[in-house]
Design goal:
This protein is α+β, with helices and mostly antiparallel strands. 24% of the residues lie in helices and 31% in strands. The protein is elongated, with a radius of gyration of 18 Å.
């Protein structure tokens, strides 16, 4: 039996979304506006979902075609290393601005969470999304 490529045999099942994920990146950030937070680094978890257009999705199994995860990771580390933030909203927007400027990005979601704020809550956080 000859198999047709998926998009010809079942076009409704052809991929429509192409995402790159970085989940639960743990960083120590000087973040917060309360007196006890200023100058004290806090654990922050960052998640990033990058939606790419098909032209920027790998067409071959090569290093040159791969998305640069290191760009996201090192960029976030540099932001929190070199700057103090009062608000998670500001940091999330800076991360968003850094990634959305990359060619091929057609959608983006950035989530930041402080997991150690309240003993009765898993985390408090911010989501910025293009959708």
């Amino acid at each position: 039996m000859t198999r047709l490529p998926l998009n010809k045999a079942q076009p409704q099942l052809a991929p429509r979304t192409h995402k790159v994920l970085l989940q639960e990146l743990a960083v120590d950030a000087d973040i917060g506006f309360h007196d006890f937070e200023i100058g004290t680094r806090q654990r922050l978890l960052v998640c990033v979902e990058v939606m790419l257009d098909l032209a920027h999705w790998p067409q071959a199994d090569t290093r040159e075609q791969a998305w640069n995860y290191d760009f996201i990771r090192t960029g976030i580390h540099a932001l929190v290393r070199d700057r103090r933030f009062n608000l998670q909203e500001t940091l999330a927007q800076e991360i968003f601005t850094m990634i959305v400027a990359v060619e091929g990005v057609i959608g983006l979601k950035v989530t930041t969470r402080k997991p150690d704020v309240y003993p009765d809550a898993k985390a408090v956080g911010i989501v910025i999304s293009s959708d």
